[in-house]
Amino acid sequence: MTRAEIEAAVLAWIAQGVDAPADDARFEALALALFRLQHERGSAFRRLCTAFGVDPLRVRRWQDIPAVPTGAFKEARLAIFPPEATLRTFRTSGSTTDVRGALHLDTLELYDASLAATFRAFVCPDVERIRFLVLAPSAEEAPDSSLSYMFARALASFGTPDSRFCLDAGGWDADALVTELASLRAPVLLAGTAFAFVHLLDQLETRAVSLALPAGTRVLETGGFKGRSRELTRAELHGAITARLGVPRARIVNQYGMCELGSQFYEASLRTGVASDVKVVPRWVRTRAIDPATLEDVAPGEVGVLVHYDLANTGSVLAVMTSDLGSVVDGGLRVLGRLRGAEARGCSLAADALLDPPGASR
Amino acid sequence: MTELGALAEAGRALEPERTIAALAGAFELWRAPDSAWRARLAREHGVYSPEVIQFGVARALANWTADTLARLRARELHAPFAAPRVTAVWLAGSIPPSAFSAIALPLLAGSAVYAKPSSADPVSARLFAESLREIDPGIAAAVRVGSDAKVLDECDAVVAQGSDETIAALRARVGSVRPFVGYGHKLSLAAIGPGIDPLGAAQSLATDVALWDGRGCLSPAWALVSDSPRGRAAEVAHALAGALEETEDVLPRGALDAAESAELLELRARAAVREGTRLELAAGASTWTVVLESSELRPPAGTLRFLSVVPVSDLGSLARFLTPLAPHLSCVGHAGFGPDVSRLASLAVAAGASRLCPLGRMQLPPLDWNHDGQGPLRPLVRWLDVEG
Question: Nearest CA to CA, how far is B264 from chain A (Å)?
Answer without folding.
Answer: 9
